[in-house]
Write a structure and sequence with these properties.
Order of helices and strands: HHH
Shape: elongated
Number of strands: 0
Distance between the termini: 29 Å
Structural class: mainly alpha
Strand content: under 5%
């Protein structure tokens, strides 16, 4: 996932991104490497954008 894809907004739902975050933590066994931490941070940003988009859409 590149930062450019985040600039255009999240295409995936917050639930989909949350599932990917949970899968990352399961694979990592609860302790993230520096590469996994970077992936996690991007996923959290994408999840937050998806949540905002869903709230705005619901309004």
């Amino acid at each position: 996932m590149s930062p450019d894809s985040l600039a255009c907004g999240s295409v995936r739902s917050a639930a989909d991104v949350n599932d990917q975050i949970r899968a990352l933590w399961r694979r990592a066994g609860g302790s993230l490497s520096s590469q996994e931490r970077a992936e996690y941070e991007l996923l959290v940003v994408e999840w937050a954008a998806a949540i905002r988009g869903e709230v705005i859409e619901a309004a």
